[in-house]
Specification:
It is built from 14 helices and 13 strands. The chain is mainly alpha-helical and 390 residues long. The strands form five sheets. A three-stranded antiparallel β-sheet has the order 4-3-13, with no helix packed on it. It has a three-stranded antiparallel β-sheet with strand order 5-6-7. Helix 8 runs antiparallel to helix 9. It is globular.
Length: 390
């Protein structure tokens, strides 16, 4: 058939092929959420993004912003593809340097060590001097809380693993201090080296010290560190709630749960997976199932039967909490004291008395990046429909 020269021929142009992201939908979800938490003037991610509909949802507290930003950068070290406008070296240098300008806890310096090692970035000189002072004066270690010790030891090992051997001299003394002063016969870890507050330990206490033990044990070959970490994980799995809840407060002396609440989303999808990744690597039975069960809590398999995601913002809801404790921690502390004194265990309460804390913190998204940035074996979680950009 001949086509007349005057005929209008409609050309069919193929649609451009959309390049598939090397990141999982979960990782891209967290990256989109972090865009909302970004404070462009300060070059940091915010302390809180409020989810209550206020006009200016980002709340900034400088010393917290700085630590959270370093936590986010740690997570980004495991992400295959980052947005082009994220200048990792510049953001790290600015915020690491700010550690010496704000009243931050010692664990923030540990996070700087860890993030710098994973990103292969130099530590600013003034921060290096401050860290050497902290690590060299063992008399000051008595003031360490578990998070301080855990992050400093993890940071030291991460630096040594990255070839910065100048930090390795601190690893042995830090580990011995952990083993002597923070390890409980119950299998859990104490929150402090001494004092009344010592036995009241959080889920974060267990996470940071266990990760430090795994890191130290793997790097140095010290089996005792691996045994301590495994014993803690074994206990945590046994104490996990019926719908995957990771309890918040423990009596490290007896190994009992003192309070399940608040149940924090970041523990469910970020910090527990970070710890359980190590446990899986060393063959802890039940670690993978505990990870999946805990993550599914965020997706709606929880007391309230509701998702803890905010897909339209690519953010997450911080926690489930007793309604009467949304604005005060006093009842929680008194209850923990009573349970410890009388030897009581703690269970979940009537869902009618449970509410949610409507906020998201940037470091929570950073833990998603760290825990799932390199995982391709949990697609039921990482490719969950709510994480896709619609």
């Amino acid at each position: 058939m001949m086509i007349s020269p005057n005929s209008r021929v409609k050309l069919i142009v193929p649609a451009p092929v959309q390049e598939l992201s090397p990141n999982s939908p979960l990782v891209n979800y967290a990256l989109r959420g972090l865009e909302r938490c970004w404070l462009p003037k300060e070059r940091r991610w915010s302390h809180i993004y409020h989810l209550d509909g206020r006009a200016s949802p980002n709340e900034s507290i400088a010393q917290s912003d700085v630590f959270y930003t370093l936590n986010v950068l740690l997570g980004m070290s495991r992400v295959a593809h980052l947005p082009a406008d994220i200048d990792l070296p510049e953001i790290f240098h600015r915020n690491a340097t700010d550690l010496t300008a704000f009243p931050v806890r010692k664990y923030a310096f540990g996070m700087a060590l860890w993030a710098a090692a994973e990103l292969r970035l130099p530590i600013p000189d003034r921060v290096r001097f401050a860290l050497k002072a902290i690590l060299s004066d063992e008399s000051q270690w008595r003031a360490f809380r578990a998070q301080d010790l855990g992050m400093l030891l993890t940071g030291v090992i991460a630096q040594a693993r990255a070839g910065e051997r100048e930090w390795l001299c601190f690893a042995g003394p830090l580990y011995r201090f952990l083993k002597e002063r923070f390890h409980s016969e119950s299998g859990l870890f104490f929150d402090a080296p001494a004092g009344f507050r010592r036995r009241f330990a959080s889920f974060a206490t267990q996470t940071y010290l266990s990760i430090a033990c795994y890191q130290y044990g793997e790097f140095t070959g010290d089996v005792s560190a691996l045994v301590m970490a495994d014993a803690c994980v074994c206990n945590l799995i046994a104490l996990q709630g019926p719908q995957g809840e990771w309890p918040w407060f423990f009596d490290a002396m007896s190994g009992r749960v003192l309070d399940f609440y608040e149940v924090y989303s970041v523990h469910q999808y970020g910090m527990a997976p970070a710890l359980l990744e190590w446990a899986e690597r060393f063959g802890r039975r039940g670690a993978r199932d505990a990870l999946v069960k805990g993550f599914n809590w965020v997706l709606g398999h929880n007391q309230l039967g509701r998702t803890m995601l905010v897909p339209e913002l690519s953010l997450t809801i911080r926690s489930q909490v007793r309604k009467n404790e949304l604005k005060t921690r006093a009842p929680r502390m008194l209850r923990a004291l009573g349970n410890a004194w009388f030897g009581n265990g703690e269970a979940l309460i009537d869902p009618a008395r449970v509410g949610v804390r409507l906020e998201c913190r940037s470091y929570e998204l950073g833990w998603i990046l760290w825990s799932f940035g390199r995982r391709t074996d949990l697609r039921d979680l990482t490719d969950y429909p709510a994480f896709r950009d619609t």
